[in-house]
Amino acid sequence: MDLTRRQLLKNGVIASTAFYTSMLGAAEQEPASQRSKLLGLVEFINEGSMPLDTATGDELDGRLYCDLSSVKPDALITPLDVFYVRTRASRVLPSSKGWQVRVEGLVEHPLSLRPDELVRRAEPMGVHLMECSGNNRATRFGLISVTRWSGVPLAKVLADAVPKKESTRVLISGFDQYASESLNSIPGASWIFEVKHLASAQAFLATHMDGRPLHADHGAPLRLIVPGWYGCACIKWVDSIALVDESAEATSQMREFASRTQQEGIPQFARDYRPAIIEQAAMPTRIEKWSKDRRISYRVVGICWGGSQPLQFLEIRFNPEEDYVRVNHFRHTTNDPWTVWTHDWSPRHPGRYLIRLNAKEAAQARRLNSGYYVREVEISDV
Ligand SMILES: Nc1nc2c(c(=O)[nH]1)N[C@H]1C(S)=C(S)[C@@H](COP(=O)(O)O)O[C@H]1N2
Ligand SMILES: [Mo]
Prior knowledge:
This protein is of the alpha+beta class. The protein is about 15% helix and about 30% strand. It has helices spanning about 1-10, 15-25, 115-120, 155-160, 195-200, 250-255, 365-370; strands spanning about 35-40, 45, 55, 65, 85, 100-105, 110-115, 125-130, 145-155, 170-175, 190-195, 205-210, 210-215, 225, 240-245, 280-290, 295-305, 315-320, 325, 340-345, 350-360, 375-380. The strands form five sheets. It has a five-stranded antiparallel sheet with strand order 2-22-21-18-19, with no helix packed on it. The longest helix has 10 residues, at about 1-10. The site of molybdenum atom has 6 residues, from loops.
């Protein structure tokens, strides 16, 4: 049902007040005499041209960019088959039957855990967003998704192994051998976290997405999820959890992603890395063209995510020479996962518009403030 609706929407043939009112809430229903008709979507321009919602490539160069235009207030969770993928499963990935996760390093009781044990211990872990730190205009911002996760809290696994007093950090590594060489990425995914950061973020070893066993491309049998952190820290195909101390050097993955996770230079030691958290961000994801009483108007739908405090308001600007105005329909109650907002827009002239959001109250929003999430459209009818 939802798929058909998405396809219909893309072709602009849905003209239903039912859909319109589902976005506005019953209070703003329009009388039947003033029927509104959704004419279609306006595509963003000057972005990558790769296909969306389709897996391409293999292993380290395998990707799936999800189509954010289907995110709506009533469709917050990304359909599983189009949850973004950055690095597809290795062709030489061992079967999960013999898989072991070693809990090792500075621990009193080294452990070797089997995936089926962890699946038995899995509990609901909530709905969380994941975004690749390399998500940008060239990737059509398709490297961001939301799902409902289950798994085992990392704190429980660590407690079972009893970390030694001198341990302060945790090195989490995944299986990263591939049959073919990558053109763009360095193999070897592992990240070092401060124990207290993993605890405060409520990190977990995920076993299920949206009630289904993890797919190989998403890190089966086990992957790490650190809510609120960039995807590059969310190691897939986890096979080792090692307690380390302050002398630990940064991993190749941390160095590769240093600038994208806003580090100062490329620090040599793990202790000199800032948490790879997603600061407050927001962007438009869909521009609807409507006819209301035979007049053309537009509705911008977008998302707001990251950060640590809900915002009272969000501002939007259509081209640098215009002023920021408050987004009409914005209610922010959580920083994870994303919040969908809508804004009514009646551009005065045809032409190109650079749409940009501003979160004045956010403590930190470096990417957003740098114009990183700006998106452009060409409006022909006003
Ligand atoms: N083992 C391993 N884990 C990994 C990676 C990888 O290449 N190898 N890529 C990371 C990056 S950069 C991202 S954005 C997320 C993507 O997770 P997904 O493909 O399930 O969306 O996985 C992370 N975990
Ligand atoms: Mo990533």
